[in-house]
Amino acid sequence: MAEGDKLEHQCLQKEFEWVLNEEVHSILHQLNIILNECVRRFPSWDSDVQVKQEKFVLSTSPDQLKSIVSISGDTILQADIQFKVQRHQQQIMYRTNIRHDCPWKLHQVQDAGNHLRQAILQIDKIDKETIFNSSEEVLHILRNLLGCLQRGRTSLIVPRKRTIDDLIKSRNMCLTPNLPEDLAISFYIQSHKLIFAVYQLSNSHGAMKYDTYQAECTVPWLNEVLVLFTVALQLAQQLKDKICVFTQYRDITQLSRPVSSIAIQS
């Protein structure tokens, strides 16, 4: 091997070792700070901590739908609901309530929080003095971490798809008074918004169909959570990409050089 090539590979080896044992720990520390900041934005599920209640108004104009909801953490404690639907060429108004003794769970918030805590656990398991000897060790950690973060972010952005039957039979459909069997409601999260939806089943020439009406409002802390999820994902992905570039370069140089040549250890 030419002296210049040998020196280049030695420099590359040193840079790779620095990335594995200095930059990786630095990035993991930054991620830990970001994710704990994200946790602080989430409502607390610690039974010893009093979670503040927030009130939101979801409505459309004209007054097709309106709901005033009180939320604590991942739970709608109370909601006054009213909406109009078309029946036999006239609009009928319905009113119902969610009460304190039968709250409505926002499972997406709980799921996102659980994935976030799993991501923090992935980082907490790594000792600050750990010496990484291969890229695969780091990539394994980053794959697990990215998986937790992607699932957490997706929980908030993509609502679970549910059938009308699922909604009607759901524990969350505990309303006072009950709605007719051809009506169902739902509250769910989509990105930084709380959505209130009404579904009306009807029979059209022997085929079942349903109409959907919905109102929404912005939940400020959800926007902050999504920003922090995104920043953490980008930071972890950038580190993963950097490790992959080193690994690919190593593989290429190993194929193009004699077996006795110096190779990056990964």
Helical run tally: 5
Q: What is the global morphology?
A: elongated
Strand content: 25-35%
Low-confidence stretches: 258-266
Taking Cα atoms only, what radius of gyration do you get, to the nearest Å?
26 Å
| Quantity of strands, as a count | 8
How would you sum up the major sheet? 5 strands, antiparallel
Alpha-carbon distance between the termini?
Answer: 21 Å
What share of the residues lie within helices?
Answer: 40-55%
Determine the structural class based on helices, strands and strand pairing: alpha+beta
Query: Order of helices and strands, N to C?
Result: HEEEEEHHHEEEH
Q: What is the average of the pLDDT values?
A: 86
Describe the 3D structure.
- It is a single chain.
- The chain is of the alpha+beta class.
- The chain is built from 5 helices and 8 strands; from the N terminus they run αβββββαααβββα.
- It has helices at 3-41, 107-124, 135-157, 164-169, 220-256, and strands spanning 53-59, 65-72, 75-87, 90-98, 104-105, 183-190, 193-204, 207-218.
- Strands 1, 2, 3, 4 and 5 form a 5-stranded antiparallel beta sheet that branches.
Give the helices and strands, then pairings.
Layout: H1 3-41, E1 53-59, E2 65-72, E3 75-87, E4 90-98, E5 104-105, H2 107-124, H3 135-157, H4 164-169, E6 183-190, E7 193-204, E8 207-218, H5 220-256
Antiparallel strand pairs: 1-2, 2-3, 3-4, 3-5, 6-7, 7-8
Helix pairs in contact: 1-2, 1-5, 2-3, 3-5
